[in-house]
Structures are given as C-alpha cells and as structure tokens.
Design brief:
Blueprint: E1 3-8, E2 13-20, H1 26-29, E3 30-37, H2 39-42, H3 50-72, E4 81-87, H4 91-108, E5 112-116, H5 117-128, E6 136-141, E7 146-153, E8 156-161, H6 168-178, H7 185-193, H8 218-230, H9 235-260, E9 268-271, H10 278-290, E10 295-296, H11 300-303, H12 308-319
Parallel strand pairs: 1-4, 4-5, 6-9, 9-10
Antiparallel strand pairs: 1-2, 2-3, 6-7, 7-8
Helix pairs in contact: 3-4, 5-12, 6-7, 6-8, 6-9, 7-9, 8-9, 9-10
Bound molecules: 5'-O-[(R)-(carboxyoxy)(hydroxy)phosphoryl]adenosine and zinc ion.
C-alpha cells in the first residue's frame, strides 16, 4: 500500500491530492483532493498569462497542501512519497509545484517522484477504472496536446500521431474566442453547440482521408473565423458545425490509428481536458464498438487538469521503484515518446 501526495501546477489549475494506491474504487483511491482554478484571473486576457499563473500558484499551493492533508486526516509523515508535475507546461508554474514537492520531500525525508503531466493524463483512466490493463490505445486531447499513443506500461509509449499545428482543445478555445464565449472555451462551445444545427455551416475536415493518423486544426479555425465574419450564421450553428467538423477529424484519425496499432490493444482510451466533451465520448464509443473494443474515459472531472492523476501516476511509478533525485529539473517540453519522429508542419507540438 502507498499513500502519495500529488501536486499539479503546470498550467492554470493549482491542485493537490492524497492518493491511496491500495484502493480499488475511485472513491477509495482519492482520499482527498483540492483544486483552485485561475479562470477569473486570466479571463480578461482571453487566455492563460504565464506570469499571472505562476504567481497565483505561489500564493495558493502551500496552504492547499496543508488543507488537503487535513481533509484526508493525515500528515506529511503518513505519506510514502511526494509526486509533483515536473513538466511539460508553463515553466514558471511547473517550477512552483516541483520546488514545493522537493521542499516537502526534503523536510519529511520522503522520496520525490517527478511526474510527466502527460503521463498523468495517460494513466488517469487506470485511476478511474481498475479493470483497464496495458496495452491500450490512447487518444490524448488537451489544450496543449493532441496525440494518439500506444500505452504499453508506465513510461512505455509509442506515439502514432500528433498535430501538425493546433491541439484540439486549442481549436475549441479559439472558436470560443471568435464567438465571444470567453475563456475557457471548450465547455462553452459544447453548451452552445447543443442549440445549433451541425449541418448549417460548411467547414473543412483537415487531413481526413490521409493515410497517417496525424491531426490539423488550423484550417478549421480559419474557416470558423470566415463563417463568423460572413455575418449570416447563428453563433450556435457555427459552434455545432465546428464541433461536428472537429469530431469528424478525430474519429477519422483515430480509425486510421486503430488500423495501425500493434496487436492486443485492450481498449480505446480517451483522456485530457477535451475528453470531458460528451459528443466526443459518444462518437468514440461508436468507433471503439466497431473495432470490438471498449471505450474507457475517466469521469469528466478527472479529464481536465487535477492532482489526483499526478498522485496516481506517482503511485504507479512508486510501485515500480521509480523515484527521482532532488536535483531533477523542471522541463517546459517533455514528450512521452522521445523516439517519435518529427512530423511535417510548422509549430508541431509534442
Ligand atoms: O487537460 P487540460 O485541463 O489542460 C491541458 O493540459 O491543456 O485541457 C484543457 C483543454 C482546454 O482547451 C479546454 O477548452 C478543453 O480542454 N476542454 C473542453 C471541454 N472541457 C475542457 N473542450 C471541449 N469540450 C469540453 N467539454
Ligand atoms: Zn493537462
């Protein structure tokens, strides 16, 4: 059994959690968790401002760690290890969380586990569903990343696809900005799309039909901008048509990846912030069923950034004896599959 304190601060959520890896249900495994969103601080700017984010993490994180331990009825001494996000992300924020984790580990004489934020997302479905076994095919869709990976085990990733320009969450956020829906955009676009006609606005499906499962959303974003500027469409119709076009791309790309994946995948898994989108989950469920696989998606609250997933990834690492020295560095970029070949296109992420 291991009790792990998890810390997350790589973007605009400050979060801390206590994870009990001995539990079998989600309720048993997440002993306590707290999360503070910085949405209000960033809203006037229409996106995350790194310096504001880092300062907010500094103010909130220390007291939050104390509070989450109190919620759990435990102390730092009870923890077996401290797991903190060490990247990738906004480097100022990452450093706040990692340095806090190092200080706590040093003060309490506990091991430190430097967690890759993307591994947190990648393993989060196993936190929520104890029956999910390796290897699985993972669609990782967040604000900064859009990838399809084979997950063979902790630290064992093979990237089959990435985006050649924007991430899926970025496309939702930019569409929200174009439609004046504010920040963060994904949930707002999803809500408005429910009131619109997905066939009302003709939008492109970039890369659909291509033999490699990569993604591209920049052209779709420009088309959304033109549709809005035309001044003849309802915003709800633009939102619905955008969401449908984006999901058509994701489903087509994932179908190609399923065909290219190694034998023996136990499930199609979706994780990351955009995995909270109900329409996406529905579309992927149908695709997975066509391939005779279950779709596994964490509950929506575990899809967006949180510390429970960092604590859980820490617990999986700790179980294998993987810990890190106090000299471990914060990393703004940290791909899960370091051997993945670069893909064509400007501004390739991850
Ligand atoms: O994983 P996450 O919380 O942070 C990153 O690591 O990037 O993902 C945030 C992204 C944002 O782009 C947000 O707009 C998107 O996930 N998102 C959604 C939904 N909820 C969050 N996109 C579409 N539909 C949603 N319901
Ligand atoms: Zn994330």
């Amino acid at each position: 059994m291991a009790l792990i304190l998890g810390i997350e601060s790589s973007c605009d959520e400050t979060a801390a959690a206590v994870i009990d890896s001995n539990g079998t249900t989600l309720t048993e495994r997440i002993v306590a968790q707290r999360i503070a969103s910085q949405d209000d601080a960033h809203r006037p700017y229409g996106g995350v401002v790194p310096e504001i984010a880092a300062r907010a993490h500094v103010e909130v994180l220390g007291p939050m760690v104390g509070a989450v331990l109190a919620d759990a009825g435990l102390t730092l001494d009870d923890m077996d290890a401290i797991a903190a996000t060490a990247g990738p992300g906004l480097i100022g924020g990452v450093m706040v969380g990692l340095v806090t984790g190092k200080a706590l580990a040093m003060a309490a004489g506990k091991p430190l586990i430097a967690v890759n934020h993307l591994e947190g997302h990648a393993l989060s479905p196993r936190l929520a569903d104890a029956s999910l076994h390796y290897p699985y095919l993972l669609l990782l869709v967040s604000g900064g990343h859009c990838q399809i990976l084979e997950v063979a085990g902790v630290g064992q990733y093979r990237r089959l696809a990435t985006t050649i320009d924007d991430a899926l969450g970025e496309a939702f956020d930019k569409t929200a900005k174009i439609l004046g829906l504010g920040y963060p955009g994904g949930p707002a676009v999803e809500r408005l799309a429910r009131e619109g006609d997905a066939k009302a606005v003709r939008l492109p499906r970039p890369l659909v039909g291509s033999g490699e499962p990569h993604f591209s959303f920049a052209g779709l974003k420009s088309a959304v901008m033109r549709a809005k500027d035309a001044g003849i469409h309802l915003d709800a119709d633009i939102a619905a048509s955008f969401q449908q076009a984006a999901l058509d791309c994701v489903v087509d790309r994932t179908r190609i990846a399923l065909g290219a994946a190694s034998e023996g995948m136990t499930a199609l898994v979706v994780a990351g912030g955009v995995a909270a989108n109900a329409a996406l989950r529905g579309a992927l469920e149908a695709l997975a069923a066509q391939h005779g696989l279950p779709l596994v998606a964490p509950p929506p609250k575990l899809c967006t950034d949180n510390a429970a997933m960092i604590g859980w990834a820490g617990a999986e690492r700790f179980a294998l004896g993987y810990t890190d020295g106090l000299d471990v560095a914060a990393r703004p970029r940290w791909p899960l599959d370091a051997n993945a070949a670069p893909v064509r296109g400007a501004g390739v992420k991850g």
